Amino acid sequence: MTVREVPLREKSIVFIGFMGVGKTTIGKLVAKKLYRDFIDIDQVIEEEYGAPTSEIFKQIGEKAFRAKEKEVITKLSKKKLSVLSLGGGAFLQEDIREACTKNCIVFFLDLSWEYWKDRISLIIDSRPVLQGRNIDEILELFNSRQEIYQYHHSRVKTDSQEAEEIADYIVDSLKVAWDIYEPR
Ligand SMILES: Nc1ncnc2c1ncn2[C@@H]1O[C@H](COP(=O)(O)OP(=O)(O)OP(=O)(O)O)[C@@H](O)[C@H]1O
Ligand SMILES: O=C(O)C1=C[C@@H](O)[C@@H](O)[C@H](O)C1
Ligand SMILES: [Mg+2]
């Protein structure tokens, strides 16, 4: 049996990057502009447990959260024509990196520390991985995570850009790539 490659235009789009860089915000906008389903992986897991992520971490621990994250993403990465926003730690797992880079088009949203640090107050309450760490420890985590985000197809620098502008840029770049690599 021959397995047909999914056309580039039908591959799902995946957003990766550190907590708070805008994966959910921009993912939603891109999905709307491309008329696709939007799936936020953290939200899928939260719905399954009926609790916010910080509560899930308390109840079952990070290891079990990561196992669920792997199960959900490996399954959903096979879906076509969707936009998936991953949790900031998802690419720590090799199986997730492989599933997403093989099945989908992966965009790394790259926000520098200078801009990122101004967002801490917006996200700290709902991100258990940030809680209990001082600013130097958060910077260390931010730096140490950058290597896992190098597994991508496209990197988008987002400093000082509005979410709408970033989403427009991503949609335009996708259309150019589709036309170049798989002209109609
Ligand atoms: N381009 C932007 N400019 C300014 N603020 C933004 C931008 N994109 C997102 N934000 C804000 O930053 C915060 C974090 O955004 P968002 O929840 O989309 O991040 P995330 O990458 O999905 O985080 P996580 O990995 O923790 O789920 C939100 O309050 C959002 O409104
Ligand atoms: O960066 C991380 O390790 C995490 C990011 C969030 O999106 C959630 O997936 C969870 O809070 C863990
Ligand atoms: Mg998110």
UniProtKB/TrEMBL annotation:
<comment type="subunit">
    <text>Monomer.</text>
</comment>
<dbReference type="Pfam" id="PF01202">
    <property type="entry name" value="SKI"/>
</dbReference>
<comment type="function">
    <text>Catalyzes the specific phosphorylation of the 3-hydroxyl group of shikimic acid using ATP as a cosubstrate.</text>
</comment>
<keyword id="KW-0547">Nucleotide-binding</keyword>
<protein>
    <recommendedName>
        <fullName>Shikimate kinase</fullName>
        <ecNumber>2.7.1.71</ecNumber>
    </recommendedName>
</protein>
<feature type="binding site">
    <location>
        <position position="88"/>
    </location>
    <ligand>
        <name>substrate</name>
    </ligand>
</feature>
<keyword id="KW-0479">Metal-binding</keyword>
<feature type="binding site">
    <location>
        <position position="127"/>
    </location>
    <ligand>
        <name>ATP</name>
    </ligand>
</feature>
<dbReference type="InterPro" id="IPR023000">
    <property type="entry name" value="Shikimate_kinase_CS"/>
</dbReference>
<dbReference type="InterPro" id="IPR000623">
    <property type="entry name" value="Shikimate_kinase/TSH1"/>
</dbReference>
<dbReference type="InterPro" id="IPR027417">
    <property type="entry name" value="P-loop_NTPase"/>
</dbReference>
<feature type="binding site">
    <location>
        <position position="24"/>
    </location>
    <ligand>
        <name>Mg(2+)</name>
    </ligand>
</feature>
<keyword id="KW-0460">Magnesium</keyword>
<feature type="binding site">
    <location>
        <begin position="20"/>
        <end position="25"/>
    </location>
    <ligand>
        <name>ATP</name>
    </ligand>
</feature>
<keyword id="KW-0808">Transferase</keyword>
<keyword id="KW-0057">Aromatic amino acid biosynthesis</keyword>
<keyword id="KW-0963">Cytoplasm</keyword>
<feature type="binding site">
    <location>
        <position position="66"/>
    </location>
    <ligand>
        <name>substrate</name>
    </ligand>
</feature>
<comment type="similarity">
    <text>Belongs to the shikimate kinase family.</text>
</comment>
<feature type="binding site">
    <location>
        <position position="42"/>
    </location>
    <ligand>
        <name>substrate</name>
    </ligand>
</feature>
<feature type="binding site">
    <location>
        <position position="145"/>
    </location>
    <ligand>
        <name>substrate</name>
    </ligand>
</feature>
<feature type="binding site">
    <location>
        <position position="161"/>
    </location>
    <ligand>
        <name>ATP</name>
    </ligand>
</feature>
<keyword id="KW-0418">Kinase</keyword>
<comment type="pathway">
    <text>Metabolic intermediate biosynthesis; chorismate biosynthesis; chorismate from D-erythrose 4-phosphate and phosphoenolpyruvate: step 5/7.</text>
</comment>
<keyword id="KW-0067">ATP-binding</keyword>
<keyword id="KW-0028">Amino-acid biosynthesis</keyword>
<dbReference type="InterPro" id="IPR031322">
    <property type="entry name" value="Shikimate/glucono_kinase"/>
</dbReference>
<dbReference type="GO" id="GO:0004765">
    <property type="term" value="F:shikimate kinase activity"/>
</dbReference>
